[in-house]
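Progress note, sequence design subtask.
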């Protein structure tokens, strides 16, 4: 199918694949839209064990890797959408989130959801701007 604009699908970030039909990110011009990132075990592609904090850190690290592959970075994120299966984890999530976004935090929406894929506790997606090379 012909597309009238320059859309690039990003599928080469070094993170485990869920095997589901989607791109890790899509780039249109200088905007990068990531899929929701989750915490999967590198070897088994099953949910990472160790609890909420372990998954939250891995989710944000996966987000960083996908953004880098798409030519963006955590520093160029404009907006995140965060999904937590238990809103009681919000304080812990905020602490971990600040580790990855220590200054100039992007706009953010956070939702408590009834469920994600079995075993997953947190998912984060982002919209960022591609870094232009001088």
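Output:
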């Amino acid at each position: 199918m012909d597309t009238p604009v320059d859309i690039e699908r990003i599928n080469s970030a070094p993170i485990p694949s869920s095997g589901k039909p989607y791109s890790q990110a899509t780039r249109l011009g200088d905007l990068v839209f990531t899929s929701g990132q989750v915490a999967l075990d590198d070897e088994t592609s099953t949910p990472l064990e160790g609890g909420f904090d372990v998954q939250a850190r891995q989710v944000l690290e996966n987000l960083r890797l996908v953004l880098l592959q798409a030519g963006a970075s955590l520093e160029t994120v404009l907006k995140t959408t965060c999904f937590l299966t238990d809103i009681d984890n919000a304080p812990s999530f905020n602490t971990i989130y600040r580790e990855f976004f220590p200054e100039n935090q992007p706009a953010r929406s956070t939702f408590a959801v009834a469920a994600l894929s079995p075993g997953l506790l947190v998912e984060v997606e982002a919209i960022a701007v591609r870094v232009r090379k001088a």
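The first strand starts at residue 7 and ends at 10. Work on this subtask will continue into the next period as scheduled.
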